[in-house]
């Protein structure tokens, strides 16, 4: 009987600690625009991988072309953020999480700027573990879907920096480059919190 890989141990730690984790929740989130995303983990060939999508280029979309997690705006019919994450994931990737996996916990709310207006938007990430194989059927909002090994994200040598500017202001931010794909911003913040549970 083989021993567990480092990544398998890491996933078990994440699941165990998510069960005890108390995410930061914005008490005022019910009065602002809300979104939810799904951080989907799978086990394949002794590796743990996380699904990320590259958003399609769309004029007027502040996240156009960015690496992100499946998800989107909460609809009136969505009773909870979890329902939003499941619905949006199915729409964007064709993965029906209620059949293919299960939610293993949630992470802290992140405050973001919305597509329009001055009011902030609260984004809630939910973590899922797949228990069956899935195929990706991306819709028009997704340019690409890619599985990224957890070992890549856990390797400190893969951590890099980038310059981000707005007007005359330029700041240095952390990021990863997975091939030509740049992972940064809100998505990186979510990954950092998830990996902090290892």
Automatic annotation (TrEMBL):
Keywords: Hydrolase. It comes from Zhongshania arctica. Its EC number is 3.6.1.55. It is an enzyme of class 3 (hydrolase). One of its GO terms (molecular function) is 8-oxo-7,8-dihydrodeoxyguanosine triphosphate pyrophosphatase activity. PANTHER family: NUDIX HYDROLASE (PTHR12992), NUDIX HYDROLASE DOMAIN-CONTAINING PROTEIN (PTHR12992:SF44). The keyword Hydrolase applies. InterPro entries: CoAse, NUDIX_hydrolase-like_dom_sf, NUDIX_hydrolase_dom. Residues 31-172 form the Nudix hydrolase domain. Gene3D superfamilies: Nucleoside Triphosphate Pyrophosphohydrolase. The keyword Hydrolase applies. This is CoA pyrophosphatase.
